[in-house]
DNA sequence: ACACTACATTCGTATCTACGCATATAACAA
DNA sequence: TTGTTATATGCGTAGATACGAATGTAGTGT
């Protein structure tokens, strides 16, 4: 495969990864895991300002992670597909294993 | 669940996600997919400077994504476990679907 | 000891990102 | 129209990130 094309694809790939590489966006994704929510719902549930929630949702929208639907004055957000959630869960399992490993190492070192 | 603890866990979770949220680190991870490689091997294969490769590997090491083994003067890098690779692949599939939806570059991904 | 190779780390800087604030847009009601 | 609610977007800035260049460190051989 052409190195130039490979680099550009990895750039796009990284953009999708960056979509989930922020603590607040992970919180948002978790809230949307099994329910459709408005911007205001997310603000209240996560105690984050409206403008900040909208900014994070704009990133998730741009990367194709979420889709939107209007309901009167509100805009409801949903996760598009399950692959992103699956990836998020895999990385969380990875983190859990890593924390367990380091916890075991730490206790061994401290006796 | 306590919101404060949840936020801290998502901070750690995001740190793992950030590890794969960079095009060069994705290239490195792909090179290590099925072979153990030295820093110099990666520099040559990816045409990236030695210091930059070492910097990216330091991040992957710190996040627990790769492990190291000394062989003389060289240091060989390996992926720790398969969960990160699985997550990377899922996000790549997600990207491929999204690009196909938008009608661009979809065929490049499956080749 | 010295030199050489392979890798890691520090530093300065350019670029990027997240955030608050203010403002703009959209839908609806009176 | 005006007003109100809900969401989006532009702007400025503090902090994070990526990079090259230089330097530090570890292992090997002479």
Automatic annotation (TrEMBL), chains A, B:
Pfam family membership, one: HTH_5
Keyword field: DNA-binding, Transcription, Transcription regulation
Annotated signal sequence range: none
SUPFAM superfamilies: Winged helix' DNA-binding domain
CDD domains referenced in this protein's UniProt entry, alphabetically: HTH_ARSR
Protein name listed in UniProt: Metalloregulator ArsR/SmtB family transcription factor
Keyword DNA damage attributed: no
Natural source organism: Nocardioides aquiterrae
Domain of life the protein comes from: Bacteria
